[in-house]
UniProtKB/TrEMBL annotation:
Residues 99-161, 220-259 are annotated as: Disordered. It comes from the Bacteria. Residues 120-136 have a biased composition (Basic and acidic residues). This is DnaT DNA-binding domain-containing protein. It comes from Pseudodesulfovibrio sediminis.
Amino acid sequence: MRARNIKPGFFTNEELVECTPWARLCFIGLWSMADRCGRLEDRPKQIKMKIFPADSIDTLELLDELCGHELVVRYEVDGRQYLYIPGFEKHQTPHYKEQEKYPACPGFNGNGGGANPGPKPDHRPKSPRQAQDKPKTGPVQTPDEPPLNPESLILNPESREEKKATKVAAYTQAFEVFWAEYPKKVKKKYAFSCWKKIKGVDALVIVEAIKAQVAGDHFRGNDGKQYVPNPSTWLNEGQWEDEIKSQTNGDDELPPELR
């Protein structure tokens, strides 16, 4: 386990505050298991023994939650599963003697981004002679070389749309039907990760349940306001099994002689 830093912004990060406390603690533990580039093996049992040795915790569910919020990325190289923390190199400063232990994640070349940031700076201490001999010249540009265009650093908009279309195509048809019926549309990717964890339940049952709850005013409280949970919460808690609230008023439920 390696020493890592926790910045104050960790506690107010928009994605992290949506995670459960156990998932946040797991995220911190992954930093100390990762190599200098933020990579580690995707081995839930080993991760549990190193982060939660005395707790009854399902580490696989915590990793699914972190991946659903894009805080951790799963990938495979030569048949082996790995995890990558995209923001690791941006927020951590590993010891200069640490080595890259695991293969790179496809699509990421460091510093949590897709663009190659160039060679990493050498943080090793230098002798006074090395510091003195280092040339103090700026970047050299040949006369035939065109000036750098800042717009060339921006990703092609078409490639962004293609990437977005690829992600959308990953949703199943049954989930899209559920999503169309659910009255509160937030955190779709995380909701889909919760949907995939549901086993042994017909998708039609879930869809019909949300239709009935919406039609039956199921989410309206006693004060007349709507209280609709996030779709991920509704799925995780199995709320499709909840009894539909009655639409009748309290007086209608009383016997005639007591009205």
